[in-house]
Amino acid sequence: MGWLVGFSGPSIPSHLVIKQDGALFEINEECLHAQAGGIPETCCRGELESGAQFLISGIGISGGRILQTKDWITLLSQSRVDFDAMNGHFIVMRWNSDGVEIFTDSAGVRTLYGRECYGGLFFSSRLDWLAKLTGPLDIDLVKFGSQWILPNSINTSSVIKQVHRFGPSTVAVVNQGKLHNTSKPWSCPITHEDTTGVKFERTLREAMNLRGAFPWSLGLSGGLDSRVLCSIGENISAHNWGPSDHPDVQISSKLSDAHQIDRHYIQSDIPEVDQCIHLLRQRVGLTQVITPASASIERSGYGQLHAMGLGVIDGGFGEIARRQLFNQIVFRRLMCMDSLNVSLKFPTTAKAMIFNPEVHQAMILNAVEELNSVWRSLPQSMTVSDKADLLSIRSRLPNFFGFEQNYLDHVCISYMPYAQPSVLRALFQVPLRLRWNGRLLRRMIQKHAPNLSKYPLVKGTMMYPFRLGTVSSYAYTLLKKRFIPCYWDPRPQAYIGHMKEYILDTLRSDSVRHYEPYDQVKLRQIADRFAVGDMQYTAQLDWWLTFDLWRRVLSVNTLDSEVR
After folding, report:
1. At 139, is the pLDDT very low, low, confident or very high (cuts 50, 70, 90)?
2. Longest Cα–Cα distance in the chain
3. CA-to-CA distance for 101 and 174, rounded, in angstroms?
4. Strands of the sheet with 216-219, listed across from one edge
5. Do 168 and 398 meet the contact criterion of CB atoms below 8 Å apart?
6. C-alpha–C-alpha distance, residues 42 and 301, integer Å
7. Among 500, 529, 508, which Cα is nearest to 293's?
8. Cys bridge to 90: 58, 363, 371, 511, which one at CB 3.0-4.6 A?
9. CA dist., res. 201 & res. 207, Å (int)
10. Cα atoms found within 13 Å of the Cα of residue 40, Cβ hemisphere only
11. With 50 as the cut, is the pLDDT of residue 564 above it?
């Protein structure tokens, strides 16, 4: 539950009160009025010998363990702290009578939002709370386009008008209510000198096996990434959730049995509609529309793991070690690239076709422009392959997995071994021939737990033999889909059907009918078909519901009057 919210300026406006339930720490000083809260492992406060004080939201990792308050005191007492050398995901706030300093981790996995108004800076780790403090927030739909059109946003700037997003390696200073901030994208030397991958393996193992006062549970799926972590993990258990007949659940069960580790199977039944709305509202306030609405149900399982006294190891961003983005570029031909330019080869679709044609086209154009701009900013001395991996770290890590981490820090203590800066730096020392096709990851499994290679891998809902590489598995799953009925996940349709009355009421509300960016003809068509039981628009409604609640959460003045 690591969260942070507050105001820095000469004097807080008298009509605004910073008060959130569940705060662990409250600061009311001349230059800073703030609250921080959550579980103690993701939120701490301390005082330095100099008289300066600090707050931490998230976790810092050094020396193979999570930093405690005394460690932060030692670290922050230094005149200059090299946060880029640290593992973990965190927001650091340090202040004295002269002003406030804000720092973020080097990969931008944790982020903070700020809005300058009322003679100072309001800040929050949650956009919905920032809206409550400063008034309705206006989404820049054109900038939001890359997130809606592509798998995730390309750069780390804010998609909310007049709101700062403190991205990777932020150093922000607030003095007398005036903000001065800088940030820089993640980078590291590239040598390819780890010709056997041994150094990478050692670094990943160190990141995986943190010392701590509580046991760790690994999110074990049927894929390659979590299987590698399972093979090198020490004193861990495993967990998963979903329908019992889902391929991921079936394979993870076999893997945990074969590796002789305990497995926690979390039931994720659909709750009452009011609770569904509450869970979704919490999630969109923290994650900014990165998953469809139905995903909010299974994400609630993390809270159950925390209640069991477990920390969570997440295999997220393991894709970087098997070069997924580059594979998509090459085999799906999403982009044409040369040393200066990247462009979409064909018109791309979106998560849901709910915006009018003018808005949709503007989103596409901006997505291409952002992609082009970020690609050109990458070092020209790098190979196209390394550029693709660096692009993934700079865009997908903060703009998808980072938002997910923001949510997880509210419900449990968790971390992603693959996303640690030390692991990312080690990865760029591994030759491309080992990173290609997940070759290095497969070797690690064969070396440390060969019994785990006996079971098929799962991609989506499709199983394929462990021995198949990127190209052959892609061909295999395509053929299998064509000739063999694949598993159908009933959860999204069950969720949308469960929410039918709420969805139809919202679709017909004034808030939706008067929202100009929407394609009103398309939404009426969807509503009419859905009303008579036609479920062909399930995916469209799943994504639309996430976006619509998010925009209403940010438009504070209208939220309370909306249909429930």
Report:
1. very high
2. 70
3. 6
4. 263-266, 236-241, 216-219, 311-313, 414-415
5. yes
6. 18
7. 500
8. 58
9. 10
10. 5
11. no
Residue type at position 104: T
SS (H, E, C) 507-537: HCCHHHHCCCCECHHHHHHHHHHHHCCCCCC
User: Considering the chain, what percentage of its residues have pLDDT values greater than 70?
Assistant: 93
Print the SS3 string covering 339-377: CCCEEECCCCCCCCCCECHHHHHHHHHHHHHHHHHHHHH
Q: In angstroms, what CA-CA distances link 95 with 28, 34, 79, 173? A: 12, 12, 13, 10
Cα 183 from Cα 171, distance rounded (Å): 6
What's the pLDDT band for 98 if we cut at 50, 70, 90?
A: confident
Nearest 5 degrees, angle CA 4-CA 33-CA 108? 30
**498: Cβ–Cβ under 8 A, 6 or more apart, which residues?**
270, 273, 276
**Amino acid letter, 82:** D
d(CA 134, CA 339): 44
Amino acid occupying residue 141: L
312 to 104, 213, 306: CA distances (angstroms): 22, 13, 8
CA angle at 470 for the pair 203 and 240, rounded to the nearest 5° = 65
419-457 residues labelled b (16+ CB within 10 A) or e (exposed): bbbbbbbbbbbbeeebbbbbbbbbebbeeebeebeebbb
> Taking the CA atoms of the chain, what radius of gyration do you get in angstroms?
23
Residue 237, beta-bridge partner list: 217
Amino acid letter at 236? I
Site of tokens 């007398």 = 176
> Which amino acid makes up residue 333?
R
Instruction: Kindly give the pairing relationship between strand 457-459 and strand 462-464.
Output: antiparallel
pLDDT at 11: 80
d(CA 61, CA 54): 17
| d(C-alpha 384, C-alpha 341), whole Å | 11
Type of residue numbered 291: T
From CA 316, how far away is CA 418, in angstroms rounded?
7
Q: Are 43 and 23 in contact (CB under 8 A)?
A: no
Residue keyed to tokens 């056997």 = 196
- Residues making up the chain, counted from first to last: 564
Q: What is the pLDDT of residue 443?
A: 95
Give the containing element (helix H, strand E) for 304. helix 301-307
Rounded CA-CA distance 324/337 in Å is: 17
Phi first, then psi: what are they for 208, rounded to 5°? -75, -40
Per-residue pLDDT tens digits for 474-494? 788 888 888 888 888 899 999
Q: Label residue 334 left, alpha or beta by phi (over 0 means left) and psi (-120 to 50 means alpha).
A: alpha
- Quick check: 83 and 106 in contact, CB under 8 A? yes
Is it the case that residue 561 has pLDDT exceeding 50?
no
